[in-house]
Design brief:
The structure is a homodimer. By secondary structure, chain A is an alpha/beta fold. Chain A folds into three domains: about 45 residues, lambda repressor-like DNA-binding domains (434 Repressor (Amino-terminal Domain), Orthogonal Bundle), CATH 1.10.260; about 130 residues, Response regulator (Rossmann fold), CATH 3.40.50.2300; about 130 residues, Rossmann fold. Helix content of chain A is about 45%, strand content about 15%. Chain A contains twelve helices and twelve strands. In chain A, the strands form two sheets. A six-stranded parallel sheet of chain A has the order 2-1-3-4-5-11, with helices on both faces. In chain A, strands 7-6-8-9-10-12 form a six-stranded mixed sheet, with helices on both faces. Chain A starts with a helix and ends in a 10-residue tail after the last strand. The model of chain A has no long low-confidence stretch (mean pLDDT about 95). At the A-B interface, helix 4, helix 5, strand 2, helix 6 and helix 10 of A face helix 4, helix 5, strand 2, helix 6 and helix 10 of B. Strand 2 of chain A pairs antiparallel with strand 2 of chain B. The first copy, chain A, binds a DNA duplex through helix 2 and helix 4.
Amino acid sequence: MNLKEFAKSIGMSQTTVSRALSGYPEVKAETRQRILKLSQELGYHPNRSAAGLATGRAGAVGIVLRESHGFDPNTTEFMAGLGSRLETRQIDILITVVEDREGELTAYQRLAASKRVDAVILHTPVVDDERMAFLKKLKMPFVLHGRGIDNGNFPWIDIDNFGAIYRATSYLIDIGHKRIGMINGSKGDVFAEHRDQGYRKALKERGLPFYEDMITHGAFIDDVGYRSMQDFLSLSEPPTAVLAGSMMTALGVMRAVRSAGLTLGRDISLIAHDDVFNYINADNMVPTVSTTRSSMREAGVRIGDILLQMLAGRDVSSHSEVWPVELVLRESTAPPAS
Amino acid sequence: MNLKEFAKSIGMSQTTVSRALSGYPEVKAETRQRILKLSQELGYHPNRSAAGLATGRAGAVGIVLRESHGFDPNTTEFMAGLGSRLETRQIDILITVVEDREGELTAYQRLAASKRVDAVILHTPVVDDERMAFLKKLKMPFVLHGRGIDNGNFPWIDIDNFGAIYRATSYLIDIGHKRIGMINGSKGDVFAEHRDQGYRKALKERGLPFYEDMITHGAFIDDVGYRSMQDFLSLSEPPTAVLAGSMMTALGVMRAVRSAGLTLGRDISLIAHDDVFNYINADNMVPTVSTTRSSMREAGVRIGDILLQMLAGRDVSSHSEVWPVELVLRESTAPPAS
DNA sequence: CTGAAAGCGCTTACAG
DNA sequence: CTGAAAGCGCTTACAG
């Protein structure tokens, strides 16, 4: 059923029906209600391609994911939040999977030229990120989840990675730890850079030395946590506390600690960053794990908000938010064993 | 730049350019090559809405995800595989997030009526699944990941859940276990039903009783594994081996075993189902965990194949595949402690 | 507040 | 093998 047929079947002109469904003010409220109800009953929905062609808007936002990256649990949580927000306006999410960074740029070019999406979401910015400039040149609107080193005229939302790790490190020092290991995200990722800085600042402020061999960088997978922790434990003077960049690396740390016959929360303290997944819960670990906590899902919801404003034509180009991160203390942190 | 402008700028008619880009055989190979190269250079991509309107095809496939369900790591892995396959044909994935089952049906209706996608992917079928019949009525092509109890005339791909658990259970019995716990997926999910059946058949064949209190059903989250295992351990005669439906529940089981002061692979044996994530690896656990293994990502790739065939007009309505599941034995399984 | 009609940018049957 | 033109189903400026 198309507009013509639908309009005819309810005895109205195409113009009026179209305007009623799009919520234009020219239509009498009562008329709109009736048309809305009838469209529901008869199951009429405008052909999205036709509407897109006429308006120049796609009614969808894009996310480009690299196969090797971007398919971690974080992305899923983020999309759940984003989608739940966009659903209210019937904006869909278009996923494009690419192989590498170069493929990502090509994908943006195609999405822009073919007008498949009205905006895209960028995530996991790196220190020298070319994507923001690239999208600007394409005139493709975007919101960045995370932030650049150099933030031009575009909207972004990030958590306070610096503050979170600064605070966690400071806390560990304050309860007596003098050697603190750090298992961070991949080198080059802006968030990991900020966490490094928070870590170093806390050490410096409290007059503790920075040890190169007590910091590692890598993907958020359990194996990286395990190996890093094993390396730490093999040092002549191992750390007495460790910061893990994710729950996945934290699981690896816990394993390494057990394997070494040590006890977490007694011999070794741990604070992990928790993006909040329902299937892995810091409160359910043994011992329960202290975390710096920030919900990925909520970030998705908020970025959905901003996108909707963007699509409504509002100027959000200078909008940015930095979300505070909670420090949740549980059993895995304690003063060092004398 | 639109077709008209692009065609003019390279001195060809719109018809020829359009046909060349769509790979129609009427265009001389040499001409097509030239046009293809020029379109790359000038960055011309057909407006997808216009193409969709003209052809009636959207160039995208849909997945509808419920907020409370479908945002687990499995879905992510599946999409990574699916997307990598569809990318080769520049077919995008349209994600629609809904609240509940009813919202899911409404979403299909909208996707069908507005011609936003050419086909959808159904996943996690339940015993009384109304979605297949619903989509047929809408004339919306689909592929089912999993299978129905009653499989009509539609394509599906599933793993051999029955066989996997039958084999794992049989193995445990063969090495001497007489009480085997089972932490299964949610009641009502077809895959969980099949696993139940495999479990029961193995017990029955070898003359072992089925104990109601040695089987639980629930979501694939660590907490479910933990609690189920604690319940098992509080039985007057606890199981000596356990099957966990996922790596997430297996983590919970491992925790409960440790909390009870027992040792996995000695006091308690464990076999977990592993959908293969790169961030949680059965080989890296302590002890390493025996698994029934099947790659979610590969399933995504294969379903992408089938969708592409579908979009190419091939009749795949009676296509189905059941994939065998590997049993990988590691340190977590051993004969019962005397 | 409502309607007739132009136009969005493609694809493809038809004619050559 | 190539081209002129109709038509896909909407939206929206314009006229009333």
